[in-house]
Amino acid sequence: ATPTLTALARKGIVLDRHYTFKICSPSRCALQTGRNPIHVNVLNSDILQHNPRDLVGGYQGIAVNFTTLASKLGSAGYAT
Question: With 70 as the cut, is the pLDDT of residue 43 above it?
Fold first, then answer.
């Protein structure tokens, strides 16, 4: 039993539909963007690997034009 987490969940929300990927980077990207890992960073590649012709989403990981959980929380008044 985890009474602190249970109490925290009662006061907020419980995320019960987050699917994880077999390696960490795609899972982190999916949690931060709400997107399936296949649309974010499925290969867990080197962060410096990129397509220089694609200035928006050419780098591995979260593209600069993706909305993130942190930006939504920030616009709602939370400090992230």
Answer: no
